[in-house]
Design goal:
Strand order of the largest sheet: 5-4-3-2-1-6-7
Helix content: 40-55%
Radius of gyration: 21 Å
Order of helices and strands: HHHHHHHEEEHHEEHEHHHEHHH
Shape: globular
Largest sheet: 7 strands, parallel
Number of helices: 16
Number of strands: 7
CATH topology of the largest domain: sialyltransferase cstii, chain A
Strand content: 5-15%
Structural class: alpha/beta
Number of domains: 2
CATH architecture of the largest domain: Alpha-Beta Complex
CATH class of the largest domain: Alpha Beta
């Protein structure tokens, strides 16, 4: 109970400073000789608290520049085996996020960049498809778009991540529902009822549902990282549709990494406000837990691979310098909760 309180109190600030105090002689940076690092269990534990809760504290205090300095240094030390942890997960994370703008921002030495990117598993988190279903023109519908302005008849399939309202009609386009764990577990009955009513062509879910045509094979292959960093809705969609389908073309609407005040439209059945007690708070915590840097760079790398034609303003977003993304996020979420609740698109 005390440990849980300390974790939640001011985003783990007390645990961060306490661990920092007791591990003052073991500060990690990119220029140090990690081979001379103490590998004791106590040292590893203290550094975990220092860098993990330091990341949480600075991110949720809207200092993303400091948060990711800590996270990158910590994961680098884990990837080398200098301190205990999932070295493969740390390496996979670093291989995904290391892009020229991030390298320049944190002045990561060339020898470290080379050692990370020359590993055989470099960005192996994008795999060729294993399960073959052919699709034509596909629209991926995100939470911030206005569906009433879309001609759905221009597409063969529409991908959605939530059981959308009954009055939202998709013309002649067929539906593909891709769920996350929360909807597969917390809202299972509601989802099953919706599937029976809307009869989607495909349902992809990480947990078993009542429908026999639900496919969950691809979820077992979604890349895993460490410290809770994981792919979000758009990024899971991209991985799964590449793994399961052959697609003629994909158009992406309504995904903006929550860099807009209007990130969630009123029609979109999100659980983020109810789960976290507010839209602003939920977006900040979710972006911290899932790791906005990981998801941003994963999307950039995926689009740059040009596995199939992808259109949409998502290209303009991933071309932004990462320092611009951090600044945009920080400035936006300095606003209070009411600012976001009043911005929801009808």
């Amino acid at each position: 109970m005390i440990k849980s309180f300390l974790k939640e109190n001011n985003n783990g600030l007390f645990l961060y400073y306490l661990a920092k105090l007791f591990s003052f002689s073991h500060k990690i940076n990119f220029n140090m000789n990690l081979h001379s690092f103490s590998r004791g269990r106590l040292t590893s534990k203290l550094l975990h608290y220092r860098y993990h809760y330091g990341y949480n504290y600075y991110f949720r205090s809207l200092n993303l520049f400091k948060a990711y300095k800590l996270r990158l240094q910590y994961f680098y030390a884990i990837s080398t085996g200098a301190i205990d942890g999932d070295s493969k997960g740390a390496m996979k994370y670093l291989q995904t996020v290391l892009e020229p703008d991030l390298i320049n921002l944190y002045q990561i030495p060339d020898n470290i960049v080379t050692s990370i990117l020359r590993e055989n598993s470099s960005f192996s988190s994008i795999q060729s498809n294993k399960i073959q279903y052919s699709l034509g023109k596909v629209l991926m519908l995100g939470p911030s778009c206005n569906p009433h302005l879309i001609n759905f008849d221009s597409y063969d399939h529409v991908i959605i991540n939530k059981p959308v309202p009954e009055d939202l009609i998709f013309g002649n386009a067929k539906l593909i529902l891709i769920l996350n764990n929360q909807w597969s577990i917390q809202k299972k009955d509601q989802v099953n009822k919706w599937i029976s009513q809307r009869n989607p062509s495909f349902v992809l879910a990480p947990q078993p549902l009542n429908q026999s045509f639900t496919n969950n094979d691809g979820f077992m292959h979604i890349p895993t990282f460490l410290a809770g960093a994981s792919l979000m809705g758009l990024q899971r969609n991209l991985f799964l549709i590449n793994y399961i389908f052959n697609i003629k073309s994909l158009h992406i609407l309504g995904y903006n990494f929550s860099l807009s005040r209007n990130s969630y439209a009123s029609w979109y059945p999100s659980l983020i406000s109810s789960n976290w007690g507010g839209l602003r708070k939920g977006i900040v915590i979710s972006s911290s837990n899932h790791d906005i840097l990981l998801n941003f760079m994963y999307t950039r790398k995926f689009l740059n691979k040009k596995l199939f034609p992808i259109t949409g303003d998502i290209h303009d977003l991933v071309d932004l310098d990462i320092s611009t993304v951090f600044t945009m996020f920080q400035n936006l979420y300095k606003q209070d909760e009411e600012y976001f609740e009043q911005s929801v698109i009808e």
